[in-house]
Design a protein that fits this description.
Blueprint (H helix, E strand, L loop, with lengths): L3 E9 L4 E8 L8 H11 L6 E9 L6 E8 L2 H7 L2 H27 L3
Length: 113
């Protein structure tokens, strides 16, 4: 049984993107956008495509999260259509994650075998 319930899955041919609206069960308040993107990518087999979490919304007193995701085949097209601030935040998050992983890898490399 999947944690993701698809509410709408539309191919927007005018904007050349796929728009997915779904309900993610049981993770209200605990789910980050990057984790939600990973979940949707695995659920819909979207490897190699650009998936952007546009909106994650929780309701008071409920444990579900409603998410809107845009799926693009071409990252350049996504950068033209989506607010550039979103891509700046994604790049900043990638750098921060890479820096956090780098010291852990150095510690493993320095440890004697």
């Amino acid at each position: 049984m999947s944690m993701i319930e698809t509410l709408s899955d539309v191919n927007n041919s005018f904007l050349s993107r796929r728009e997915i609206v779904c309900n993610i069960k049981g993770l209200a308040g605990k789910l980050k956008k990057s984790e939600a993107v990973d979940m949707v990518t695995k659920e819909f087999n979207l490897d190699g495509k650009t998936v952007i979490a546009i909106n994650l919304k929780n309701q008071t007193g409920r444990i579900n999260t409603f998410g809107t995701f845009y799926v693009y085949d071409d990252e350049d097209l996504a950068k033209k259509q989506v607010n550039p601030v979103i891509f700046e935040r994604l790049e900043k998050k990638k750098k921060k994650d890479a820096e956090a992983d780098a010291p852990a890898e150095e510690v493993k490399a320095d440890a004697p075998a």
